[in-house]
Structure formats: structure tokens, C-alpha cells
Write a structure and sequence with these properties.
homotetramer; alpha/beta; 6-stranded parallel beta sheet; 13 strands; about 20% strand
């Protein structure tokens, strides 16, 4: 059994990871660390685990966790992550980090979008961006994986085939993304209270959201040229799910069928990427609680534009589920082990 | 008192109109007609009206309604509307129609997007498009007003100043719109059941939604050139509200403040249009239950693009409220009479 | 015009009061005081008021408020209310307090259920319990009104006729109440965050909720004997609304119709109390946003028991709306002035 | 592998059963029958199954299903179930029926509450009531199991220990139950549309809901005397979950701890029944998506009454999950196989 530790086990991404790993056939828990709740049973904080996970939450002790584990998942607040990773990096343990710190090839890009110096630039060399469908081989060899953002996973996978096959003009890409409230984490801010969110929606961080740079990095890599694009996140009153609606101008005449075939071919053999047939569009309920990415599209022949809609569960494929997918790859396990369930739908 | 009749009083747009008119100081009800519920008290079908409106729902009799009323609102299903309007048009009564039939200058455009011959093309001449902020003077003289669609009201007002002031390139406009479920009307379709909608979201009718043509008509009029654009509607699990996120490429360098000033100037004196200050974006809860349109924007200087976000209550400013605003204009009443309340917020 | 001040204008009860008063034909605002937001425009904190209320929020200055107003509404946190009321009580101004402090006849009962000494016991003499349908005459003469709790308004009105007409045994009354989340106020507690509340429900404070004592006081007054009862509150993922399901054993054989007649007779002439006909039960959507109380019932002849269901909007009839109803009574205005609108339904 | 067929695979109970069985290590699918969608792939109707279940939905052919299966689950509309069961009953196949038809010991009780003659009274002899925690041994030997109702499972388990240990008076039991909307099935009725349910709640079928008789049957069996009780169902705007609040008068003095111990003892060794510690109450989010039953309680010493709150997922422990638990028992498998996951929480 793989001994796994979760540092930051009581945030939403962390606890979803624990939920998934609790049924993973090849994993046993080592440290479940929580600064806020150390000393309490997990099932005291999250009673849904009673009779399922009987562990006690422990203090955040990165070195001990590293020594006791084959893999450590860090799902810590931005600041905490910075301190912890370097301590883990010296050890033999494999690391999957949920923060933005190790998702970048370029220290400059990170520092520009995060507005602060990188705490461990030397690790950027060895860290791998954990978008499984794009970087499987590097992930397999990696000891430190930067687990991708939720918006970015959803958006990059929606555009990668179009960029790779040079079907679109890359100078006018627009991504309009809508996210559920779990994306904000387990928050006590009034902004995320039930009464402020229910029946409401809004856009936020237009032109400045950090995930923009992550999407641009990956699409630029595929295009072998620098791509810049518009990314607008929205807050929607659902718990789980992201839907990205992506717009790009076609550089030729294409039918829906032709572009759908490009997607099906590009993602051939990918268990978690499901391409919708002509006339079908993805919906959150078909991916919620699962690690699937549903992608549908429509060509607007009148305007020579393609609209691609992609959909994931932000805390599964957008966080905890993809982390498990990365772990499976890093340990040579079947990639879908423990995450091959259908979405809840209801 | 103005004698008002509502044909189709038990659909969501119709009943919202009745709710607003029930407190309008200058209006008394004549016919409240409902095919489904004729003979029942309104308060039997909608118990929220008990002790407020004591009328009985009557059969759909357009001629009688016309004879007994100063104004007739038709909030009927697409088909029914077609039959009824011609019967009303001969009479002296003023008409505000909620269907798409009288929103168009061009019969061809209507027939192209609706896929059927227009039933009363001769009325297109005299009908006026009831987007109050743009056509106030014609509306004041009109006897037949085509009440605008919900998506269109929200989207046109977000883009009109940019088009009018020639601040943007008009060849790359993209509107990503999100609507609450009341937009689908009072529906018994499984697609709109609580269990299918709650926790879900989806895009639909990409590149083919009829409101596209309405938005293009109005923006083209302002631009004095033909504008085509992308419009993508989404279904969001809230009852009331539309949020339109609009993207366009700027034809020069502008700051947020400069463009905000353009909007404030363009809508100077407009009670129902509220332009957000720099750094503020609209939210549905600030307009839900009210006739206000909130508009905020952000310039992406990095990309030379502007993102405008607009927000309305789809069944108030997007339907019943704007109809009352039109009525107020047609009868020379203060434009905000009976619709000057703040949004519910909660 | 009546000059009204609201102390605590930015909590949910306070801001709902401002929303209602902003359209009240006989009221103008004096002080809108907010500790958290003094100095800001109300429309900065609650943008739904832009173009509707242009006032700035001021510091909490009870004496100044009293001097500048005909009536002061105190919608302050429990502690703050204690300090403020005595300062107001010396003045000529009329006071409507939203806290629990002045709802009690007996200082002992208050201190037992609130677990602390009463701060101004001498005022209990002159204060009147503001449940309009039961204490209209005292309210008309009162200078200090203790505005009833939300659960209590809903529950007392559901049981008063049965107790008054001695139709039930008073030793086995059970009230199972369900409330929307606004009942918790504008909260930044994780317990009331969207992700913790949406899709969830729970009971809380079983056998210990303070409103129990308020209900017992009023029903005991009617019964002229001490009544004790079970009251269980539940948290439901809606914003507005309370539904109380009340159980009592009948002391004889009755039909639905007979008991419905008792209710209709008991509440004859009461505009805000609507008794459902046989076979009809109240629903939150029929009262949300309105000051109405809907009451329906069903006799279980098999068990000799009656089940009464009552429904209100917790922040309107359960707080701000009833406060305005009290104000109307205190100033000799038509009781429904400014609060006679139908529920939103949608 | 156990060959399992689901007749009625596209209703909510049926499709949830398919979702659970799709990950059950000991089960393979035989017939997935759907009258509405025969001939379509399951993943066309429910796209969440794409890449997980690749079966096509077939016509409803009970005999063929029986011949091809070790167990047949019937999750059909009331009428359809009646016709199908007798055809299956002759065969060697084991049957778990989701309808009310085989939950009763007494034909008279069934006919009284269902208002129609029973279609196969001869089968009542051999059928077993599938409330696993109460009838495990009979279920192990049964060939026909009547899978319990959702409200009944939740309510019976909350009261069984009190009745069995004779801690309460049985003449004044009141059950106030709240259910999510999936309880109504996959409905196209306007009553269950998003806009009618969201933000709303209501009671329904007071004193007449069929589940009353099921609860009375089981508690009477335990009490060895006839018990009658009040049961009131409510509709709450969530998808999954039932919460039952049960009231009973104690026949002596007890502390919370004493009664909690009675429950813990009564359910000792029951994996799926989780008794909350003193001061803790169950919440839907802790059981949603799982087969667990959470039970908490509070003694009201002032009134000599106990309030027990129980919570389940209505389509898991209240339907599909308990059906799988029954199957596990019938085939001698570990009782929690395939249903031992934690609740979703989010």
C-alpha cells in the first residue's frame, strides 16, 4: 500500500482528497494534518467520515510526514505551502502541491501574476505541471508535481486541440468561465455566505485572475508561440463544478463534425476526457463528483468562429481527483484507479 | 385610471406584470385572461395575491379586452400571440406585446431567425421596439410596442455606448450571457425540474438563439453598419436574473475611467441604468425584483480589450417591468412610476 | 412625514426595514446608523439602493437619533441594543426594538431563557409586545414596542385561535419550525456559508431556543393558564421564510371545516392573516417578500389531533414588516400602509 | 459475479441503483430496462455514465430478465410494478421491489392506505420487509423483498429503540419529516419545477401519507401492540436527503446520555447506523450520497419529552442503497460491500 499524507486535510480540496483516497484500493493514510483542528478526530470536523475514516488529525509536521509517507499532498493556504514544500523537497517522498507555486516554468511569470518573489525558484526546474493529459510522461518521472488550478484544467483541455492542430487564430481567444462556490475554499467570508450567494451571480477579477497566466503558459507551449487571452471568472450558486465557454476565430471553414473529430482524435485513449457528439453540450451534473472532463462544441459558420464548452468538477478533476490521477501515474498504477466512478448527477 | 388588460396573466411574465401593476398608482385591471385557468380566481392559481388582487381570470377574448381597456399587454405563447395581435391592432387600444413578433424592422430577419412566415408583416411598420432607453420618443407615440427580450435588453444596453462612440472594433463582439430559470417560463418540462437544474449549469442554443438577431438589429442601427456577433446563452440555477459578459476589442488606448465616463455620459438622466464605479462589478442580487440595469466594465490594457458586464432581472427589466416602463412612456406618466423600488437583495 | 431612524441599518433586518420604508408614503429617513459602515453611502454597502436611497450611513448616536426622529427602530446586535434603549427611553421618541429585551412581561422569564440579568427591567412595565394581531390596542398607545421574534410570530398566530377557543388540550403542543438562513442575520460564520448550507438541513437548539419562552408567554396569556410546549427550530437552505408545523390534541370531535371557521372568525378583518380553505396548505413562496401570514390546517380524525401549518417571511412579518405594521398602528396610519404588496412568488 | 437486472433503470431510484451497482465488486449488469428509453444507450439518457457503463437500455421483459439474472430490482411506477412482480415471482430469481406492494404484512392495511385491492396478496406471505437493521435474518432467506420507503426507513430507525425499550408512551408519537425533491421521482410536473421549488417549502398529505402505515406496522411489531402516530411530510428545496424530527413523551426521567446509550446499544455492530454524541445533531450533508443513517437526540427534561432527529439520503439508504444492502444480505456478501463510502458532504 502507498502511504499517503495530506497536509491541509480539512480545507475543501484536502477533505475531498481524503474522501477519494479513503476508497482508493492502493492507498493507506499516514498523516492527516490540519492546523485548525489538530488533535480532533477527522469525523468530529467532518462527520460524514464516521465509520469510514477513523484517523485523528495531527499537527502540521512536514518532516515527520515526509518520513512516514511515500507521497505527501500539500493542500495548504498559499502562505503555508511556501514554507512547507522546501522542507519536503529534500526528502525522498513524492510531493503533489495544490498551490500555484510549482505550476510555472518561468519564475518571472509567477512573480508577475502573484506579485511576490518565488520562495523556492530552484525547485521550478524539477517540478512538473500536473495536467495529466498533457504531461503524463514527465509526471511519471516527477518527484514534485504542481497540481493544476481548477479553471485552468477546464480551459486548457478545451483549447489544446484547436491550438495544436492550428485550426484557430490564437490572437483572439476568449474564455468565459463559471465556477461553483467551493472554488473559494472553506470560507467564513460574508461574500460566500448562503444569503449573499444564493440566487446571485457575478463576474470577478476580470483580466487579473492568476489562472490566466497558467492557461497562457500551457497553450503557448503547445502553440510554440506566445499566446495571450482573455479569461473571466464568474461565481455561480452551486457547490461543485466549472463550466468554461471558450471562443476563438477559425482560420478556415470547418463543420462541427470535423472539429469534433479533431478533439476525439487528440484525446483518443483518454479515459477522463469525454467529447460530446454533434448537438450535445456538457452539463455540470454529468461531471459533478467525478474526475471526468466533458467537452462539447459548436461552429458558428456565419461568423467563422468556434465555441467550445468544457465542464469539470472543480474540486475533483480541478483539484483532488487530478491529484489522485497524478499519484496513480507517479506510482505506475492504472490511471483511473479510485477515481473511475460516474458523476453523482443528482 | 388607466384600464389595463393582461392576456396570458398566469405565465411567469404575465403574473409578474400583474404583481407590478397591482401596486401601480395609475392603473386598474380590466381583463386578466388565462387560457389554462379561466374561471378561477387569480389567487387560487397564485395564492400570493390573496387579499391583494381579488379578480377572476377570464377567457382569452381579445376584442372584448380591447373594448374594455386603454392598454392590453399580450404575454402569450408564441403561437397564440400571432392570432391575437391582429385582432387588437384594429382597435383604439394601445398594445404591448411580449412575443418576438413585433421587435423587428425587417420581416426577412424575423423569418430567417424564427423559421416561419410573419403573421402580420403589415404591422411591422407601425410597431416600435420597446427598449425604452433607446427608443423613448417613438414609444411615446406608438400604439403597438414589441417588448424586448430579456437577453437583448441586458446585452444591447451594455454595448450601445461603445458602438455609438466608436470605441470598439465591431467585428469581434462576443456576448456570454447567463440566465435564471424563469427565462424558460412556467414550464413542466423535466429539463427545468428542480432536480435537473439545482447544482447544474449549461450552455444552450449556441450561435442559433433568436435574441442574437434582436441584438444585432439594434447595435447595427446605432453603428449605421451591419454588426454580427456571437451570443451564447447559459442556464444557471437561480430564479431571477441575467448577467451578460460582453467582450470587444478597443480601437485605441483607454483607461477604465475614460470608458466609464462614456457610459455615464451616454446614460445621463436614465433612472434605470446604473453605471458601476471603477473596480465595481454588477451582481444579480442588486437588481433582482427591480427594473434597474447595472453595468460595470474593465479594460484589459494588456490585450486592448474591454469587458462589459451587465445585469438585470429577466422578468422585470427583461419583461414585465420594461413593459410597465413602456406603458408609462406611452401614457405620459413619470417613467419610473410603480417600478422605482430597490431590488430585493435577499 | 414621520421622521424615522434605523439604528443598525446594515444587518439583514435593518436593511429590509430600510427597503420597506424607502417606499412608505408617510415616512422620511432621519438617521441610518451602522457601526460597521458609518461614513459610507448606504448604496455602497447595498448597491441595490442606488438611485433609490441616497443617504449616507452615520455613526450610532442614540441621543441625536432620538432628537431628530419621531420613531427610532433599533435593529442592533443583542449587546448593543441593551446600551442604546435606555438612552432612547428618556426621550419623547417612539421606539420599536428588534431585540428580545422588551418582549417579556416577566423579568424572571427573560433572565431564565437569556441567562443574564435584564439591563432595564424598569422598562418592561411600559414596553408592549408588538404582535399586532394580538395587542393592537396597547401598541397604539405604546412608546416602546418589543418587536416579536420571527419564529414566535409564525407559531403564536397558528395556535392562538385553538387556545382561545379551548379546542385543544394545552399539555401536548408541539411546534416544529423551519427557517431560512436570513434568520441567522448577516453572518460571516462558516456554518452559514453557501457550501455548508446548500443542499443541507438540520435541527438546532432543541428544547432551548429562546423563542420558546416568547411563544409560551403569549399562549399562556390567551389560555389564562401556564402553557409549556416543545419548539424545535430547523435551518433550511432558502433565504426568506419560516414554516411552522404545529401539533395539538383536540378535546373533541371536529371537522376541518369547523376549525377553519374558528380561524376565519378569530382573524376576521385581519388583512395580513390569510386562512387557507380546506385541503389547501401554505407555502413560503406565497408569503416571501410580503407581510402576510398564511395558515392552513388538517384534522387527523383518526388520532383526534389537529396539525396547523403557518408560514411567513421571517424578515418581513417576522421582523421589518411587522415593525412597520407596529409603526402604522402607533401613528394612527392605515395598518397596511407601505406593506400591502403581494409576495414575490418568484 | 451476481447477474443483476434493473427494471425501471431511468427513474431516479433506478439510476441511482445503477450508479451504485456500477462500482459494486460482486455485481455485473444483465438487463437495464426502461419503458421510456429502450434502445438508447444509458449514457445517452444519463451522460454521467459515459465511459463507466456502456450498456444499452432494453425493453421491459420481466421473464427474460428473470431468466438472465440472479436478482431483479423493480423500480417501476406503482402500476407497472403490480403487473411485473407476479411474472417474476414464479422464477428462481431473487427480487427486490421498490414499490409499496410488498412492504405489508396485512393485505387490509395495504388496501386501506392504497385505496385499491392488492394485485398479488398470495405473495405477501413470502415477501419480507427489507429494513435491514430490523429484519436481517428473514431477508437473508427471502426471495422477494419489499424495499422500504424513504420516510419510513428514516423514521422507524429513529423510534425503534425507544419503543423496544419501552422508554416512551406510544400514544403520542409525532414525526415531522422533511424531504428533498428527488423523493418525488423524475417528474415533469410544474409542482417540482425549479422555479416553483427553489426558495420554497411546504407540508403535504398531512395525516394521509401512505408511509404512515408502514411506520405504524413496524413500530407496532416491535411494541407488540398497535401503535398509531402522526406523520407529516414536507418538501424542501434540496435534491437528496430526509430529516425526521420525532417527538415522544418519556415514561420516566432520563438524561440525554442514558437514552443515547440505549440507542448505541440497540444498534451495536450496525455499520450504517451512526448515533450522535450528546449535543450533536445530524445534518443531511453528512449522509448525502451515502447509505448511513445519522441519529441524534435531545431530552427535554422540562417537558418529559424526547426529540429524536434522524437523517438519511432518501435515494440511497431510502431506496437504492438499502436495496444493495438487502442484496448483499440475500447473497451472503459483506453487508456494506459497494456502499461503504462516506457522504459527499459537498
Amino acid at each position: 500500500m502507498i502511504k499517503a499524507s495530506v497536509l491541509g486535510a480539512t480545507g475543501y480540496a484536502g477533505v475531498e482528497l481524503v474522501r477519494i483516497l479513503s476508497k482508493h484500493p492502493a492507498v493507506s493514510f499516514s498523516h492527516l494534518a490540519s492546523r485548525s483542528y489538530a488533535g480532533k478526530a477527522l469525523s468530529e470536523v467532518y462527520p460524514n467520515f464516521k465509520n469510514v475514516v477513523s484517523l485523528e488529525l495531527c499537527e502540521l509536521d512536514p518532516v515527520a510526514a515526509a518520513n512516514d509517507s511515500d507521497i505527501v499532498f500539500t493542500a495548504l493556504p498559499h502562505g503555508a505551502s511556501k514554507e512547507v514544500i522546501p522542507l519536503l523537497a529534500d526528502k525522498k517522498v513524492k510531493i503533489i502541491d495544490f498551490s500555484g507555486d510549482f505550476r510555472y516554468k518561468s519564475r518571472e511569470v509567477y512573480e508577475k501574476w502573484y506579485g511576490e518573489p518565488h520562495s523556492a525558484p530552484e525547485l521550478l526546474e524539477k517540478s512538473v505541471y500536473g495536467l495529466c493529459e498533457l504531461h503524463r510522461d514527465e509526471i511519471a518521472k516527477a518527484s514534485l508535481v504542481g497540481n493544476p488550478g481548477c479553471y485552468t484544467t477546464c480551459s486548457i483541455l478545451a483549447l489544446a486541440p484547436l491550438v495544436d492542430k492550428e485550426i484557430i487564430h490564437t490572437d483572439n481567444i476568449i474564455i468565459d468561465a463559471k465556477s461553483g462556490v467551493t472554488g473559494a475554499g472553506r470560507s467564513s467570508s460574508t461574500d460566500y455566505s448562503f444569503c449573499e450567494c444564493d440566487g446571485n451571480m457575478k463576474a470577478y477579477k476580470i483580466a487579473t485572475h492568476r489562472h490566466t497566466s497558467e492557461i497562457e503558459q500551457e497553450l503557448s507551449l503547445i502553440a510554440k508561440e506566445e499566446i495571450t487571452l482573455s479569461f473571466t471568472p464568474h461565481l455561480i450558486p452551486i457547490k461543485r463544478g466549472i463550466l468554461s465557454t471558450c471562443y476563438a476565430n477559425l482560420n478556415g471553414e470547418y463543420t462541427d463534425g470535423e472539429i469534433i473529430d479533431v478533439f476525439k482524435d487528440y484525446y483518443k485513449g483518454e479515459y477522463f476526457v469525454r467529447i460530446c457528439d454533434k448537438g450535445v453540450l456538457p452539463e455540470v451534473k454529468n461531471v459533478a463528483g467525478s474526475n471526468f472532463v466533458d467537452i462539447g462544441l459548436c461552429v458558428d459558420r456565419r461568423l467563422g468562429r468556434v465555441v467550445v464548452v468544457s465542464c469539470i468538477d472543480n474540486i475533483v478533476k480541478g483539484a483532488a481527483g487530478q491529484a489522485v490521477q497524478n499519484m496513480n501515474i507517479m506510482f505506475g498504477l492504472p490511471e483511473s484507479m479510485g477515481i473511475d466512478n460516474a458523476a453523482f448527477y443528482l
